[in-house]
């Protein structure tokens, strides 16, 4: 056994393929194919495939989700806004996981966590409908104990902590944000939740987050797509997974 092939689960990598679709849509072609990217990512060590079906369909489209669902060998993690259209579509597709996220049309990327307290009834209703179809539900939230407690009360069993502020910070501020994530992870565990994390993570800043023992899964997309331009898609996936596993096991690989 090597640290790259440990016995049993260490930490899962969800590869977000949204920006494969972004490149495709930029020229209105049928390539690069998000399905092919997903299957190759699985072969390279991805533990699940994450994709966000946005209201404006700026990258992933309905047809991508429908084509991918029966083909994946791992898990599909479908990110979706808390709207009846998206919840009904998710119930039609029935991915293994649905992560409910906040969404604004004008944002470039998701800018923060879902405000579960403010929209509790809407989130609770969505969680109930999804769970009724046998779908595991995750809520994408900030590392705030009140939001985490509210997430547990909706009936969701998983949270994904938003790591964007940590990813954008430097120096002492980054250390402060990392500590917030650690406190959030502990709060999630205290409330009996599975704790995942993601947003803005890349090949250097991922290490301290991956080292947090109780994080089950990291979802990473843009950095892997960007690195693949130079390293190749499968290599980019393998390198990210290796860095994550090494960090969890206390082995530093450094930037690849």
UniProtKB/TrEMBL annotation:
<feature type="binding site">
    <location>
        <position position="16"/>
    </location>
    <ligand>
        <name>3-amino-2-oxopropyl phosphate</name>
    </ligand>
</feature>
<feature type="active site" description="Proton acceptor">
    <location>
        <position position="52"/>
    </location>
</feature>
<dbReference type="GO" id="GO:0033856">
    <property type="term" value="F:pyridoxine 5'-phosphate synthase activity"/>
</dbReference>
<feature type="binding site">
    <location>
        <position position="59"/>
    </location>
    <ligand>
        <name>1-deoxy-D-xylulose 5-phosphate</name>
    </ligand>
</feature>
<dbReference type="InterPro" id="IPR013785">
    <property type="entry name" value="Aldolase_TIM"/>
</dbReference>
<dbReference type="Pfam" id="PF03740">
    <property type="entry name" value="PdxJ"/>
</dbReference>
<feature type="active site" description="Proton acceptor">
    <location>
        <position position="79"/>
    </location>
</feature>
<keyword id="KW-0963">Cytoplasm</keyword>
<protein>
    <recommendedName>
        <fullName>Pyridoxine 5'-phosphate synthase</fullName>
        <ecNumber>2.6.99.2</ecNumber>
    </recommendedName>
</protein>
<dbReference type="InterPro" id="IPR036130">
    <property type="entry name" value="Pyridoxine-5'_phos_synth"/>
</dbReference>
<feature type="binding site">
    <location>
        <position position="200"/>
    </location>
    <ligand>
        <name>3-amino-2-oxopropyl phosphate</name>
    </ligand>
</feature>
<comment type="function">
    <text>Catalyzes the complicated ring closure reaction between the two acyclic compounds 1-deoxy-D-xylulose-5-phosphate (DXP) and 3-amino-2-oxopropyl phosphate (1-amino-acetone-3-phosphate or AAP) to form pyridoxine 5'-phosphate (PNP) and inorganic phosphate.</text>
</comment>
<keyword id="KW-0664">Pyridoxine biosynthesis</keyword>
<feature type="binding site">
    <location>
        <begin position="221"/>
        <end position="222"/>
    </location>
    <ligand>
        <name>3-amino-2-oxopropyl phosphate</name>
    </ligand>
</feature>
<feature type="site" description="Transition state stabilizer">
    <location>
        <position position="160"/>
    </location>
</feature>
<comment type="pathway">
    <text>Cofactor biosynthesis; pyridoxine 5'-phosphate biosynthesis; pyridoxine 5'-phosphate from D-erythrose 4-phosphate: step 5/5.</text>
</comment>
<feature type="binding site">
    <location>
        <begin position="18"/>
        <end position="19"/>
    </location>
    <ligand>
        <name>1-deoxy-D-xylulose 5-phosphate</name>
    </ligand>
</feature>
<comment type="similarity">
    <text>Belongs to the PNP synthase family.</text>
</comment>
<feature type="binding site">
    <location>
        <position position="54"/>
    </location>
    <ligand>
        <name>1-deoxy-D-xylulose 5-phosphate</name>
    </ligand>
</feature>
<dbReference type="InterPro" id="IPR004569">
    <property type="entry name" value="PyrdxlP_synth_PdxJ"/>
</dbReference>
<feature type="active site" description="Proton donor">
    <location>
        <position position="199"/>
    </location>
</feature>
<feature type="binding site">
    <location>
        <position position="27"/>
    </location>
    <ligand>
        <name>3-amino-2-oxopropyl phosphate</name>
    </ligand>
</feature>
<feature type="binding site">
    <location>
        <position position="109"/>
    </location>
    <ligand>
        <name>1-deoxy-D-xylulose 5-phosphate</name>
    </ligand>
</feature>
<keyword id="KW-0808">Transferase</keyword>
<comment type="subunit">
    <text>Homooctamer; tetramer of dimers.</text>
</comment>
């Amino acid at each position: 056994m090597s640290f790259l092939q440990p016995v049993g689960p260490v930490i899962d990598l969800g590869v977000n393929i949204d920006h494969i679709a972004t490149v495709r849509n930029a020229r209105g072609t049928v390539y690069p194919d998000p399905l092919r990217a997903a299957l190759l990512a699985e072969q390279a060590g991805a533990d699940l495939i994450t994709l966000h079906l946005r209201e404006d369909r700026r990258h992933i489209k309905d047809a991508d989700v429908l084509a991918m669902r029966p083909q994946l060998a791992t898990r599909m993690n479908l990110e979706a806004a808390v709207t009846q259209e998206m919840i009904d579509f998710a119930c039609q597709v029935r991915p293994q996981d649905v992560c409910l996220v906040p969404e604004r049309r004008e944002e470039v990327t998701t800018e923060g966590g879902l405000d579960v307290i403010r929209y509790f009834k809407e989130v609770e209703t969505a969680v109930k409908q999804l769970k009724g179809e046998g779908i595991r539900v995750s809520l994408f939230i900030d590392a705030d104990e009140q939001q985490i407690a509210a997430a547990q009360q909706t009936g969701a069993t998983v949270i994904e902590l938003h790591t964007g502020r940590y990813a954008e910070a430097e120096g002492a501020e980054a250390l402060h944000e990392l500590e917030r994530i650690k406190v959030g992870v502990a709060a999630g565990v205290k409330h009996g939740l599975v704790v995942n994390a993601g947003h803005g993570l890349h090949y250097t800043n991922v290490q301290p987050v991956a080292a947090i023992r109780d994080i089950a899964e990291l979802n990473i997309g843009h950095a892997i797509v960007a690195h693949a331009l130079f390293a190749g898609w499968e290599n980019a996936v393998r390198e990210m997974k290796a860095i994550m596993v090494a960090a969890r096991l206390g082995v530093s690989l450094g930037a690849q």
